[in-house]
Amino acid sequence: MPAIISIVDLCKTYDTGFQALKSVNLTIERGEILALLGPNGAGKTTLISTICGLVTPTSGTVTVDGNDIIKDYRLTRKDIGLVPQELSLGAFDKVWDTVQFSRGLFGKSPNPAYIEQLLKDLSLWDKKDNELMTLSGGMKRRVLIAKALSHEPKILFLDEPTAGVDVELRKDMWKIVNKLSDSGVTIILTTHYIEEAEEIADRVGVIAKGEVLLLEDKHTLMNKMGEKKMRIEIRENLNAIPDSLVEFDLLLDEEGSALTYMYDTNAEYTGITTLLKAVNTAGLTLRDIKTTQSSLEDIFVKLVEDDV
Amino acid sequence: MNYQAIKVIYFNEMKRAWNTLLQTIASPVLSTCLYFVVFGGAIGGRIEEVDGVPYGSFIVPGLIMLSLLTQSISNASFGIFFPKFTGTIYEVMSAPISFFEIIIGYVGAAASKSLIIGAIILCTAGFFVDLEIQHPVWMVTFLILTCISFSLFGFIIGLWATNFEKLQLIPLLVITPLVFLGGSFYSVSMLPPVWQSITLFNPVLYLISGFRWSFFGVSDVPVVTSIIMICVFLALCLSVVWWMFKTGYRLKQ
Asked: For the ABC transporter domain, which residue ranges apply (chain A) (predicted)?
């Protein structure tokens, strides 16, 4: 099946001269959960806002399900739900009314049964007659999600949905995202919490300074970029690394009782067997061996640093 | 056309007036009563007739116009400024809805509210003075055209304004003086000759004059001029709004 969103050479320069997007090319697959990572000001929100129609692109094209976002905006927008970063809600509207309003805006006739189920799924049912200003921040976030889903979109954008949200709500939110994903909704989210992307996304994109630095299947990415560390703890206290072990580029900790070896899991030859033999030959006594794999966070920090 | 969207915007805006029903109805009724007490009773007692019309009745069209203009502008400007201010406008902008449909929703609601207020004032005035309406069809036409064009004007102000001060600036510093100096409470012929000529530059004069003609058959300027002026203003507002639509002014970056 063709991609659900296809972005080609998308550029955006604001009136201030700030170039928020520099020729972005991105293909979003049907039904996937794509996490966009990037530091503040990387262009994540501009990218999302452009697809949703809030920002006019300077050049380039975006198609949603084969339709151009500018020429066929009615077709593309009706399939998209957006949960913005800010808690932008009116003060005096009631939960039920504001969700109904959103559904109408997107051209759908009222469907009380659907809205009822939606509010129940989001634990908002008992708050349906509350005025929005009386709700807590977490509840407001839920209302924004309900509004975004009110017109049964095929694509859902979540712009930093868990910023300033407590642990419980965050878990709830990922449950909802998974459920939506199971029902076939394509989900694009931006986040600062890398462990979230690691936990929930199928693919991860890294954006910095208006460019997509990387877009990869999460597991492939972790494997590809995944550097492994092996920490060899020994009973002896060394002052320096023995000459016979110099070739392995080991790091000795301050106490002189642990050696760290870095290797690439994807390399044909990891060098582990040779190293362990050499350690044995050098007369060192092993106490423990630990391996750790770099997280998405390390990968992300490395990518962004390289770019800077 | 996204009729659902127009419907929800329109009724959402109307609901705001409904929620503040007392204010919506009581405020124009009260201010009309006050004007009648002060201008009609206290001052009007000393003025017999203006252009052959008793002073109390003479001020009714001006009073209605005064409220219509200020209400249309404040309703429409606030209606679009507030979602812009709170950020909820993102939803309207990301919906499958054209700018034209957005305007029908917001401006239509603002104009409807003004029209209702105009009717309320007219009824209230009926308690104080005898009203005769010589050209009812034209009266309603003037009423509707004024409501629509000044609601459009308010919509433009609401889009242009980036803070509350700007939102109040034009209604307060431009519209109110123009209405008061546009012959709401007097006939232009009562002014010294120099001011009579200067007043001709006031667009509101044409509105009030034409509207008054539909009541009493007397006017400061020819009624055709009034109709042309209001159509020109309407066309002007429409072109500004069209330009805003083309450029995404203050709504899209």
From this structure: 5-234
**Residue B76 to residue B107: CA distance in whole angstroms:** 6
Q: Do A12 and A157 share a domain, yes or no?
A: yes
**Alpha-carbon span B130 to B163, nearest angstrom:** 44
Residues of B in Cβ contact (< 8 Å) with A101: 8, 12
B248 touching A (Cβ < 8 Å)? yes
Q: Are residues A186 and A127 in the same domain?
A: yes
The minimal CB distance from A101 to the residues B12, B82, B93 is found for: B12
CA separation (Å) from A114 to A109, A121, A182, B7? 11, 11, 18, 20
Domain span including residue A246: 227-294
Percent helix, percent strand, percent coil in chain B, to nearest 5: 80, 0, 20
- Tokens 């550097």 identify what position? A227
| Backbone φ and ψ of A189, nearest 5° | -130, 150
Determine the residue of chain A that is closest to B15 in CA distance.
A93
Name every residue whose Cβ is closer than 8 Å to that of residue A211 and which is 6 or more positions away in sequence.
A22, A23, A24, A43, A307
Give the mean model confidence (pLDDT) for residues B96-100: 91
- Are A80 and B2 a contacting pair at CB < 8 A? no
Tally A–B CB contacts below 8 A. Answer: 73
CA distance A266 to A287: 27
Kind of pairing between the strands at A186-191 and A33-37: parallel
For chain B, the structural domain boundaries read: 3-247
Residue of B nearest to A109 (CA): B4
What CATH number does the domain containing A143 carry?
Answer: 3.40.50.300
pLDDT digits (tens, 9 = 90+) for B171-208: 888 888 888 888 888 888 888 888 888 888 888 888 89
Phi, psi (deg, nearest 5) at residue B213: -60, -40
pTM of this prediction? Answer: 0.83
Residue B52 has a pLDDT of: 80
- Both A109 and A206 in one domain: the answer is yes
Q: Note whether residue A72 is domain-resident.
A: yes
Residue ending a domain, choose from A171, A206, A223: A223
Instruction: Show residues of chain A in contact with B19, CB under 8 Å.
Output: 92
| A242-258 confidence digits (pLDDT tens) | 888 888 888 888 888 89
Q: Does A16 touch chain B (CB under 8 A)?
A: no
ipTM over 0.95: no
Whether B149 and B65 have beta carbons less than 8 Å apart is answered as: no
Kindly report, residue by residue over B121-153, the tens digit of the pLDDT.
888 888 888 888 899 999 999 999 999 999 999
Which residues make Cβ contacts (< 8 Å) with residue B166, sequence separation at least 6? B157, B160
The count of other CB atoms within 10 Å of the CB of residue B5 is 25
- Whether A167 contacts chain B with CB within 8 A: no
- Residue contact A91–B7, C-beta within 8 A: no
